[in-house]
Every structure is written in C-alpha cells, then in structure tokens.
C-alpha cells in the first residue's frame, strides 16, 4: 500500500516539476528575446545560472526521492516485524494418547 501511494505521489510531483520547468524555460526565452541590444553577455550569464539552478534542483529532488524510498523500506520492515511479533501463533495440535493394550 505504501509503495503504491509512493509511486502515485512521485508521479504527481514529477509531472508538476516537468510542467514548471517548461514554463520557466518558456518565460526565460521570452524575456531573453525582448532584451535590449548589447545585453547578450548578461543573458548568457543568466541562462547559465538558470540552467545550474535547475540542475541543482534536480539533484536535490533525486536525493529526496532516495530518502523517501529508504523511509518507505524502513516503515515496511518495521510493520513486518510488528506483524510477525504480534501475530497470533498457531497452537500445536494436541497429541493423541496411544491406548495401551491390555
């Protein structure tokens, strides 16, 4: 159950991130296109910083995704231990006494 929820959350987050990146890149392109003449060095610097920021964000996201996966595994292990520890144990079947022939 946790794994399924995790995959759904990851899918929604990744979709939102991809959409945001596309919108930001579109916005930067529009701003760059309307820049005054002679501002190419500033635009190039801004593009470089923008791309670096996106890469840093991607790295942070990947690290948080790994952390969540690790957390998920820990929770599942803990739940399994808890279930094994407190699960009702099966009682052994009573032994049948052999009749002594007289």
List keywords for this structure.
single chain; about 100 residues; mainly alpha; about 75% helix; about 0% strand; rod-shaped
**Structural shape:** rod-shaped
Secondary structure: helix percent: over 70%
SSE topology string: HH
Q: Point out poorly predicted stretches.
A: none
Biggest pleated-sheet summary:
none
**Overall mean pLDDT:** 80
Category by helix and strand content: mainly alpha
Strand content: under 5%
Write down how many β-strands occur, each being a DSSP E stretch of 2 or more residues. Answer: 0
Radius of gyration equals 30 Å
Distance between the termini: 62 Å
Outline the fold blueprint:
Elements (H helix, E strand, L loop, with lengths): L1 H32 L6 H47 L16
Task: Give a verbal description of the structure.
- With 102 residues, this protein is mainly α.
- 77% of the residues lie in helices and 0% in strands.
- Helix 1 runs antiparallel to helix 2.
- The chain starts with a helix and ends in a 16-residue tail after the last helix.
- The mean pLDDT is 80.
């Amino acid at each position: 159950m946790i794994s399924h929820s995790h995959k759904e959350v990851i899918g929604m987050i990744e979709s939102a991130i991809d959409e945001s990146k596309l919108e930001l890149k579109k916005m930067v392109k529009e701003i760059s296109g309307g820049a005054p003449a002679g501002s190419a060095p500033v635009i190039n610097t801004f593009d470089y910083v923008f791309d670096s920021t996106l890469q840093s964000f991607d790295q942070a996201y990947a690290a948080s995704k790994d952390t969540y996966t690790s957390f998920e595994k820990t929770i599942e292990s803990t739940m399994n231990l808890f279930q094994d520890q407190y699960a009702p144990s099966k009682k052994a079947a009573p032994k049948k006494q052999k009749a002594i022939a007289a």
